[in-house]
């Protein structure tokens, strides 16, 4: 795992708004920047002086035009994204809400759209989302884990390309409750961005949500 060694991390947020009665989730089509042309939740970098919660609520309002009351805004998990040959990991704090206020609107960066749980466009999302998003939609949170991503060879991300072999090694287990440990997919999807998921470790946590994931993957404390 030498090529996945990390020495620092950036803190990011990601918000999923869910209509429980209709079994639909609000996603945004990212028009530019990191993860462009993929559907995703709403989020971004946490600013200096902000908590992850405040940063997540700010990004949701900026990118989708809506607000969520504090009591409805729940932490669903933390994912540490590690990229091949990149010493900076992205510690992404994932939030969910079943309620929101305001009018959903498009902005320069994101085009929001509701999707039925059965029609989530996983082939146009980050590859790892099909591992953890169903857990969030089915209420199997909180969770935490590490996701390892490799840059795809250029020819594999061109339109029309259908298969790209990716490494299928099995990762070691992390402790705590139900541990899922991964083998990545044998077929990389050409529209799912420039990165292929190489491996993952994901834990459905019974202890609550971690405050953070240390660089060595350990969890120092939980929020509840
Ligand atoms: N669903 C999903 N989201 C991911 C993955 N990797 C990853 O960074 N993200 C999210 C976390 C953040 O919400 C977003 C990247 O944040 P960013 O810093 O590029 O956000 P941004 O371009 O909107 O920048 P800003 O608003 O903070 O200026 O993408 C992934 O594998 N799956």
From TrEMBL:
Transmembrane segments: none
Key words, A-Z: Cytoplasm, Hydrolase, Magnesium, Metal-binding, Nucleus, RNA-binding
Cofactor(s), names only, from the UniProt record: Mg(2+)
Enzyme class: hydrolase
EC number(s) on file: 3.6.1.56
Catalysed conversion reaction: 2-oxo-ATP + H2O = 2-oxo-AMP + diphosphate + H(+); 8-oxo-dATP + H2O = 8-oxo-dAMP + diphosphate + H(+); N(6)-methyl-ATP + H2O = N(6)-methyl-AMP + diphosphate + H(+); 8-oxo-dGTP + H2O = 8-oxo-dGMP + diphosphate + H(+)
Major location category of this protein: cytoplasm
PROSITE patterns found in the cross-reference section: NUDIX, NUDIX_BOX
GO molecular function: 8-oxo-7,8-dihydroguanosine triphosphate pyrophosphatase activity; dATP diphosphatase activity; metal ion binding; RNA binding
The Nudix hydrolase domain, residue ranges: 8-149
One example of a Gene Ontology biological process annotation: DNA protection
Family, as annotated: Belongs to the Nudix hydrolase family.
Identification of the protein by name: Oxidized purine nucleoside triphosphate hydrolase
Subunit structure: Monomer.
GO CC aspect terms: cytoplasm; nucleus
Pfam families: NUDIX (PF00293)
Function: Oxidized purine nucleoside triphosphate hydrolase which is a prominent sanitizer of the oxidized nucleotide pool. Catalyzes the hydrolysis of 2-oxo-dATP (2-hydroxy-dATP) into 2-oxo-dAMP. Also has a significant hydrolase activity toward 2-oxo-ATP, 8-oxo-dGTP and 8-oxo-dATP. Through the hydrolysis of oxidized purine nucleoside triphosphates, prevents their incorporation into DNA and the subsequent transversions A:T to C:G and G:C to T:A. Also catalyzes the hydrolysis of methylated purine nucleoside triphosphate preventing their integration into DNA.
Subcellular location: Cytoplasm; Nucleus
């Amino acid at each position: 795992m030498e090529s996945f060694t990390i020495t620092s991390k950036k803190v990011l947020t990601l918000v999923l708004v869910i209509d429980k009665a209709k079994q639909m989730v609000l996603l945004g089509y990212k028009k530019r920047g990191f993860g462009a042309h993929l559907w995703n939740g709403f989020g971004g970098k946490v600013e200096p002086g902000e908590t992850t919660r405040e940063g997540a609520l700010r990004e949701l309002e900026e990118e989708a035009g809506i607000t969520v009351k504090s009591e409805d805004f729940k932490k669903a998990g933390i994912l540490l994204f590690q990229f091949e040959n990149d010493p900076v990991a992205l510690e992404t704090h994932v939030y969910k809400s079943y309620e929101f206020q305001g009018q959903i609107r498009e902005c320069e960066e994101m085009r929001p759209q509701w999707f039925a749980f059965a029609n989530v466009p996983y082939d146009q999302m980050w590859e790892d989302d099909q591992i953890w998003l169903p857990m969030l939609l089915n209420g199997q949170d909180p969770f935490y884990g590490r996701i390892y991503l490799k840059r795809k060879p250029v020819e594999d991300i061109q339109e029309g390309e259908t298969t790209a072999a990716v490494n299928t090694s099995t990762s070691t287990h992390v402790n705590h409750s139900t541990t899922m440990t991964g083998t990545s997919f044998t077929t990389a999807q050409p529209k799912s961005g420039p990165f292929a998921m190489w491996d993952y470790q994901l834990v459905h946590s019974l202890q609550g949500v971690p405050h953070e994931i240390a660089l060595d993957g350990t969890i120092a404390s939980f929020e509840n």
